[in-house]
Structure prediction request, 207 residues.
Amino acid sequence: MEENEPAERPLTRIQQKNRQTILEAALEVFSQHGFRGATLDQIAEVAGLSKPNLLYYFPSKEAIHVELLSTLMDAWLDPLRALDPAGDPVEEILGYMRRKLELSRDYPRESRLFANEVLQGAPRMMEALRGDLKSLVDEKATVLTRWTTAGRIADVPPHHLIFSIWALTQHYADFDVQVRAVLGEGHDPYAEAQGFLDTLFRKLLAP
Prediction:
């Protein structure tokens, strides 16, 4: 910061509340319509604010989207960060799968926001995908390879094992309407999925 440059003032409580209200509204709109289909007018309406008021906090639709994605990426990486190299291999991998399934259950809109961004070519988060995400996946793939070499789990391609966990857990958030339509009333998709995926991965990982 330059010597004569004024320090940025912290947000007031009302400003913090309005900013969070905008982000919550944007999450709802983006998860339904994607980045291209969403408009600032829609976000402002859901937030209960005027468009000029919204633009006071965020200069553009893209700025709101980037803010949501940066927050989401950190939360998305936490379940994989928790995979412990010193733990029991099968239980650690199953624990990761369960954490990802819980994330889909508890944050379906965030999952769809992420999926929509990736389907559009990830123009606003490619740096994060090639940076933090790739580094963490490569780190944990090394752990999986070490477990395989030691004969503690079956010889499976580590990156594709992680991809399969993503696909089989995030599906329940991204295709929630389809899943519930097919299963019908009286089913808990996530409880049923956990039991099935536990069995699937235990059999796959057995050395």
In short: Residues 104 and 173 are 5 Å apart (CA to CA).
